[in-house]
Each structure stands twice: as C-alpha cells, then as structure tokens.
Amino acid sequence: MINDEERRLAEVSKYLELDFNRSSEFQDIVELAAKLCDKPLAMITFLGEEFNWLKVKYGTDVEVMPRETSFCQYAIAQDNLLIVGDASKDLRFIDNSLVHENPKLRFYAGAPLILKNGLKLGTLCLFDLKSNDLTEMQQNVLSMLSRQVTFLMELEMGKKLLQQQIDVAEARNESLIKIAQLQSHQIRQPLTTIMGLVDLVTYDKELIDDEWLSMFKNATNNFNQTIVSIVAESVANKDLRVIRFNKMVQEIDDYAFLLLDETGNVENWNKGAEKIKGYSSQEVLGRNFRIFYTDEQINAGSPEKLISEAGKTGVARDEGWRVRKDGKRFWGSIVITAIYSQEGKVIGFTKVTRDLTDIEDAKDAQKVSVDMFNLMMQQTDKSKRVGGWELNLKNNELSWTSVTKEIHGVDEEYIPQLSTAINFYKEGKSRVIITKAIEIAVSNGTPWELELELVTAGNEQKWVHTLGKSNYKDGVCTKVYGTFRDITTETTERMGSSLPA
After folding, report:
1. Which residues contact 123 (CB under 8 A, 6 or more apart)?
2. Alpha carbon of 67 to those of 74, 79, 281: distances in Å?
3. Rounded to 5 degrees, what angle do the CA atoms 220, 225, 226 make?
4. Which of 8, 113, 214, 231 sits in a 20 to 30 Å window from 144, CA-based?
5. Is residue 441 within 8 Å of residue 470, measured between CB atoms?
6. Distance between CA 131 and CA 121 in Å, rounded?
7. Strand 386-392 versus strand 397-400 pairing type
8. Strand, helix or coil at 307?
9. For 73-111, how does the pLDDT look when each residue is reduced to its tens digit (9 = 90+)?
10. pTM over 0.70
C-alpha cells in the first residue's frame, strides 16, 4: 500500500516538471513576500526524497540543497506557519551546517504549500542572517501568499494536463478529418455516377417521365449537399474550442475564465467566474463583459479599449477595480487574449480574471502601517502624546490607538464610530472644517494638516493637531488614516504670548 509520503513525493516529482519561469507571477509573489515581511531571502521550495529544490528565489542563486539540512522538512510537518526566531538556539538545528557554518542562518519562517488533496509539496519561506520575527500582519501575509502560490501551481498543472488532452483531441480530430474525407470520397463517387446517368437519361424521355427524373435529380443533389455539410461540421474549429473550454471548466475554479465573442459578449465561463463575479451562468450569458466594470470605466470606454488592444496585438493586460453582482468592488488582474480564424480574423476572445483583493489589502495595510509609523515618528520630537487613527472605507470601521482614546477622554474599551467621532470636534468652525477635510480626502485623495478645537468625553476643551492621508488608487479611496496630537499647552502659550502687554 502506498503511504502518504510516497504519494507526496510522487506529487513533488510531477510538479517539479512545471516551468516556473513561464509566468512572472511566482517571482512577483516571492519578491512581495520578502519586501512585505522585510527579510533578505525568500523562496518557493519543493522537498524531495533527498534534496530540497529551490524553484523560485529572491536574494540567492542556490538551486538545490540536501534534505537533511533543510528547515522546510519541519514546516511541512504542520499545517500552519512555522517560525524559528533564532536557529542557533533551537535543538532541531544543533548540527545543521547552514546554521553553524556559512551562511549562518538564524531566522526562518515557512508556510507549507498544501494542495487540494492535502499533500504538502514544500513551502513559501523566508530567511534572515540575524535573529528576527514577524508581526501578526506579516504572518497573515505569508500564509496568504503561500495559498496564492498553491493556486497558481495547481492552475499551471491544470493547464499542462489540459494541453495534453487538447493534443490528444487534435490528433483524434486529424484522424477524423482523414476518415471523413475518405468516406466523403467513397460516397461522392457513386453519387457522381448516379448524377451522370440522370443527365444521360434526360435525353431519352420515353424511358423515364419528367416528374420522376426531376425528383430523382433533386434528391441526389440534396444528398450530396448533406454529405458536404456533415464533413464541414466535423472539422469545424468551433468544436475544438468547445472541447477546450469544457476541459478548462473541469480543471479550474480559482480563476474566472470567460469566452467572449468578437464584440465582447459572454458565450461561456467557468465556475471560478461565478465564484469571483457573483453571477450565475443564466444571468450573464449573452451579456457584454462591460457589466463587470465600474461606471467610470464604462464611461471612459475601458472595456472596448481592452478588446480593441487584444484584437490588434493578440493580448491585453489590465489591473484595477472590478464590480461583482452585489455592487461590491474587488481588485482584479485581467488578461484578454484574441482568438483568430485560419484567415487571421478575430472571432472572439478569452478573458482570465484573478481576484487580487486579499493581496492588495495586505499591501495596503503594510503601506498604511509604515506610513503611520513614519508620521508618528516625525511628530514624536514635538510631543510624546501622539496617537494614530484609521478609517477603513470598505466596512466604515474606525480605529484609534490608546493615545488617541486618551486625548478624547474615553477608556480603552471604547469603540469609535465615524458619526460620533466627528461630534468630538467643537461645534461650529472646527466641526465644519474637519467634515469637509474628510469629504475631500475620500473624493480625491487630498491630505490635510489642521489645528482644531476638541471637546472631550469629560467636557474638557482641547486644541489638537490632526493629520490625515488617503490610500487612494484608480479613482477609489479605501482608507483614510493619520495622527492625532494634543497641542493644548503649546497653543495656549502661543496665544498668550501673542496678546498685547
């Protein structure tokens, strides 16, 4: 009986045959993992029976390492992320040459690459030459990216198996063409003889009357046209496209695959499209693919520009906001490829959409976190009481740091709301100014830096310095965030010194 390790090694052997250089997405994910987690080394590894294969790498040129020195052998033994803060103090690596000799690795974080069948091929992992750690957000990012790697690998494997099936289908189709041509010739030959006899008999009307002759001739002509039609239908390109699409539907459900006609109307799609876009097949077939675009993109003619570009160059790529059936937006990566007839005419398009929302959210969260840290550090010289805040416009959730809550005079358990947060600003000029600043930041991404009056929960009046910025891209604001500082003392002193003596 085959055990799990034998099955796992068989899967590793199969996936090692994939061409990871054919798509840049694997390299993009590895580099993204290194940069978001701030680590110098990142890689996708496959753990074989004797070797640990480094298939995609960032920060190193090493292709393969012995299995016995691999950190990944421990990572695939569990379902979740493995983090080794300092390998020199870990008993599992007491005799490991990679730790105690060059390059003297210290930090490791590995997320197992788990296939749908539950088998673990290897890891998406990070290394550092110094002891280190990952924040909770970075841990979530690495785990999420490892799932993206697995999705991509299974997609590539599905495409490879699909191509093999297509090759078999095309070979079978070629055989059918030859058979059909042979049968057509064999059938046409007696028909030609019959039609020739009819022409001869036409001259001797005493043997056969005109009505019978006409009926016989029409029947043979119709029979000939039927044969021609059958042969033509058996070799139609459309049949082969149907085979390809049906195979694709069976293999893939993590990407949206659409088959469009030459004007962009949806002819067919897969389960992944239903999952990502939210429509059923009955709701979308026959409709133009522009329904997946925002009103702004439709008004700008973006869908038409994309299929026009694909028709002229063969392929069009785009990345940006798309719209689900329920009206919610998601960040998609799109590839539209033209389908040509034998005469070189565009007869349709394939459209592949990948939902990158989770990755973009992680990148945005990292960007906001770094930006917030820098903003707070810039103001720390002026005051130690600097707080932060963030408004997530996807769910309208507002969050305050402890210092921001302290300045407002509320306790740690207080959950801020956007409507009530505005009301902390003193009624009148200050409240009007901050309301307008938020509106402008959301509508066009304009930042603000203001000094306004605040009334705390304890009815204490304060002056605060508020700074706001937007995470704004492709015409949509996803977050507004900034810092909050109590400047009551310095404002009072400044105002007092400005009074006449």
Report:
1. 44, 45, 47, 72, 75, 76, 110, 111, 112, 113, 146
2. 11, 19, 48
3. 95
4. 8
5. yes
6. 27
7. antiparallel
8. helix
9. 999 999 999 999 999 999 999 999 999 988 999 999 999
10. no
